[in-house]
Amino acid sequence: MKINWKGVMPAVTTKFTTNDTLDLEMFAVNIKAQLDAGVHGIILGGTLGEASTLTNDEKRILVREAVRLVNGKIPVIINIAEQSTVAAKQAAQHAKEDGASGLMMLPPMRYKADSRETVTYFKSVAQSTDLPIMVYNNPVDYGIEVTLDMFSALLNDCPNIQAVKESTRDISNITRIKNRFGDRLAILSGVDTLALESLLMGADGWVAGLVCAFPAETVAIYALAKAGKIDEAIAIYRWFLPLLELDINTKLVQNIKLAEVATGIGTEHVREPRLPLIGEERERVLEIIQEGIKNRPVLPNYKQYL
């Protein structure tokens, strides 16, 4: 499947049972909610997917199940976050075998590669597969920035590097990318609390987190913004912001899974070393979620703009 890098692409959580196995039944419930809301793709194995705790077999099961559930309607993208180039190439091969439509790729994990090493890593993996790739550029959390000059080197040699998940937290970077590369590199905002601002500055889409619990509201903001219904998009976004801020937190996985429980499309179970929230921290997050649900807006017919 050719990927049209635009729209809302949920970075979905991984659902676990009380026995710490994959909960494919609840996974299916959530994927159906995303499809019903009109999302444009599904991303597996990111931070929200607790990828660092998943086995390779579990990742492959999730890809195959997601491919089955979406049934060709939208692309399924798997994140690659590996320590070695060999492992990243193998992950790309498995993704292809399992029916994934594309890849989201982080720079090498743990080792802080310099620019030459990072470019070589991305090139080596990209040239080992024909799957389209979105580079995940998040220097704040992962310590390596993919600069415009690095992107230039990649785009010249790797036609399948087609998009960036822009998580530098610098809104002006969207304009820099557009000025430098035009439409050659699609831009998807990777920060929930900067998503609408990014869309208004020309981002093509949104790799979202709180969409896991609030899919319709997330897609509505995107659709209305792109249709020029800015005031309507802003109104929903203002309601959404306290919830979106749950994504900008070390315990974003626990936070978002609590929100999924509240909206009936997920469970709270996380995989150790993560633990469920307790005490005052839990009460604070629940208060934000409950306030959001109490004031949940009535959405316009946003699907007419998709």
TrEMBL record:
Species annotation? Kordia periserrulae
Active-site residues (renumbered): Y136 (proton donor/acceptor), K165 (schiff-base intermediate with substrate)
Q: Name one GO molecular function term.
A: 4-hydroxy-tetrahydrodipicolinate synthase activity
Q: Show the InterPro entries listed in the entry.
A: Aldolase_TIM (IPR013785), DapA-like (IPR002220)
Domain of life per record: Bacteria
Q: Can you tell me which family this protein belongs to?
A: Belongs to the DapA family.
Q: Which residues bind pyruvate?
A: V207
KW Lyase (keyword) present: yes
Q: Name one Pfam family in it.
A: DHDPS
Protein name per Swiss-Prot or TrEMBL: 4-hydroxy-tetrahydrodipicolinate synthase
The record's keywords, sorted A to Z, are:
Lyase
